[in-house]
Amino acid sequence: MIFSRPEFLLVNISSYMRGTRNHYRIIKTINQLQNILAIDNDMTCKMSDLARRNNALNLNTNTVNGRTADIAITTRGSDFYFAISAVMALSAFIFIGLAMRKHRRDRIFHYITAAIVFVAAIAYFTMGSNLGFTPIAVEYARSDPRASGVYREVFYVRYIDWFITTPLLLLDLLLTAGMPWPTILWDILVDWIMIVTGLVGALVPSVYKWGYFTFGCAALVYIIYQLVWEARRHAIPLGDDIRKCFLYCGSLTALLWIVYPIAWGVCEGGNIIAPDSEAVFYGVLDFLAKPIFGALLIWGHRNIDPARLGLSIRDYDDDPSVSGHMHGVHEKQRAAGAASNCHTDGHRGGHINGSSGTDTAGYSNGVTTGFQDGAGTGGNADRPIVDAPSSHINGATTNGPTHTPNVVV
């Protein structure tokens, strides 16, 4: 609310300024203040209605496996999770829409980036619905009423999200740098170690959680080294556009990932801040590390051919070997049909012309037509009943004297 008791303030102002030359202006100002108060009251009512519509915490309680998390999100935290989920989903559709404008061979980075934000959208929807968590006994009891209690709500679905999306983020970056596949697979394995140790540490109620936290931080240091040193050096020779794209996206990722252990330490690890503050802390980090990162990466790849990065992706419709093969199949089918026609014509011509005469010339014409129309064009004309040398054509030969074959009539 802008004023606690606005009606008394307005009356006093009107009484004091009555009878002055600025009376008209004062009345106008009072009307404007009344309009502002009306707008403020209307917005407050709408926000209250919106908050009442979020019934997730009533439907999905804080009790899981017989334990109740007394340090849990409120409706404000749930609303924030739903808002981030909507942003992630919208980003996924935008990235897919941008992918449709590219050739299918050039969509790999669009698809990877869209998958990142789509998985994150599902995870944030789950957390906004007050699902995907388990109550864990806190190691440090706090006096702050927002973080005081015995069991804290720990969202394991967040780590499932990271287990899927962080390797995809690394895949985006390392493919941009043109890193070899063995290095990419090894970095993804180290990333999984980082995520799993973070999850195990969050689920451990004792001081041993900090041991897993140390393992995760060591894995993070190695990944940061790969991005800042190895991958950067590998991207420089690939071209100025590739170098800039990797430099911007890699630097953003390295800086943000360094902050995640701090968030873990004050949230699941140390139970310092409230779950609603945890939602804002992680939500802002994920918003910068996923949709903003994705937009920056796709913008950087707008004129980069994946073939320059060693990504020779074959498209079936444009593959010349496939199209040439299909063309050859059609040619063979047409050739087979032509040969079949030649065989039929030769067979018919040989027998018809041969049976039309009763003398030597008639027989010779039959043999000649059969041999020329059938065998000469690739067909298999039937041989006549009486064998005759293949060199005889109309009673003549090209290698010997001309003679007429003996025919029994």
From TrEMBL:
Superkingdom of origin: Eukaryota
Keywords for the protein's UniProt record, in alphabetical order: Chromophore, Membrane, Photoreceptor protein, Receptor, Retinal protein, Sensory transduction, Transmembrane, Transmembrane helix
Region (Disordered): 340-359
CDD domains: 7tm_YRO2_fungal-like
Keyword Flavoprotein attached: no
Subcellular location: Membrane
TM region positions: 80-99, 108-127, 159-177, 184-204, 210-229, 245-264, 279-299
Similarity comment text for this entry: Belongs to the archaeal/bacterial/fungal opsin family.
Primary subcellular site in the record, as a coarse category: membrane
Membrane topology note: Multi-pass membrane protein
GO cellular component: endoplasmic reticulum; plasma membrane
SUPFAM superfamilies in the cross-refs: Family A G protein-coupled receptor-like (SSF81321)
GO molecular function: monoatomic ion channel activity; photoreceptor activity
Protein name: Opsin-like protein
Pfam families found in the cross-reference section: Bac_rhodopsin
PROSITE patterns: BACTERIAL_OPSIN_1, BACTERIAL_OPSIN_RET
Species this protein is from: Dendryphion nanum
